[in-house]
Amino acid sequence: MVTAYRAKHARHPHDDAPDTAEIFRRIAELPDGPEKEELRGQVVCAWMPMARRLAGRFRDRGEPLEDLQQTAALGLVKAVAGYDAGRGTVFESYAIPTIVGEIKRHFRDHTWDLHVPRRVQHLRNRVRASSRELISVLGDRAPTVAQIAEHSGLTEEEVLLGMEALESYTALSLDAELPAGDNGFSLQDVLGECDAGYDQVVHREAVKPHLCQLPERERRILYLRFFCDMTQSCIADELGISQMHVSRLLHATCERIHRRVEGERAAERAAQESGRSRV
Fold first, then answer.
1. What DSSP letter does each residue of 83-139 carry, written as one string?
2. CA torsion through residues 245, 246, 252, 256, sign
3. Residue 171 per-residue DSSP state
4. Residue 97: pLDDT above 50?
5. Residue 219 — φ and ψ, nearest 5°?
6. For the packed helices 21-29 and 34-56, what is the interaxial angle rounded to 10 degrees?
7. Residue whose C-alpha is closest to residue 5's, from 16, 23, 18
8. Taking the complete model, does pTM exceed 0.90, yes or no?
């Protein structure tokens, strides 16, 4: 176990910066194996306080501190595995950027409620930083898109894209109440619902061409049954035929139209699949 720490007046003044140069020298001399891994484990344990301190810099940003500390520990393990003492640099100067980079990657890849491409995330950060700097100069007045573009060196299109991403980090709950005059309401209250009438319109348009092709008597039977809501007995009296005959005509006509509509849909699906396969 490593217990020696550099003095505060030494090159690395942090209290959590242990002197592990000798262990790293031994690690460099050993071949891969259990002994080398054990020494690396000792270094990780020795530098863990520094990793926790670095994780603490990112507290209060919406992520649990324990998750940040685990991410920092992962970065520390990577730093110990990738450090080359033969380059002449001290471990601390290599480990800190590695650990901080791992934490930043955690925020970039795991904390956004909506998936946003990395390029857009960078635009968001530049737009946010430029806006804050301009607000400190302009006072209460919000900077325009053109001012942000000039200050950040981005195009106005890139600024607009970054501004859209500003609202993508966290999503608003549908149950969150929003102010609306004297009474609050939630987003859930203003969401639309599925309207079965739309499906009915689609079905009606699908059968309309086939209805026009039916004989006059069959069209009249369908009209009286489904549009006038007449019973089969009333339709039979209207047309002077038996109720059983009306029932057979209704069933045969509906079946014939159904087969034709399904055949058209199958043909459309086949054409779409053929088009995709050619692409």
1. --GGG---HHHHHHHHHHHHHHHHHHHHS-SS---HHHHHHHHHHHHHHHHHHHHHT
2. positive
3. P
4. yes
5. -60, -40
6. 140
7. 18
8. no
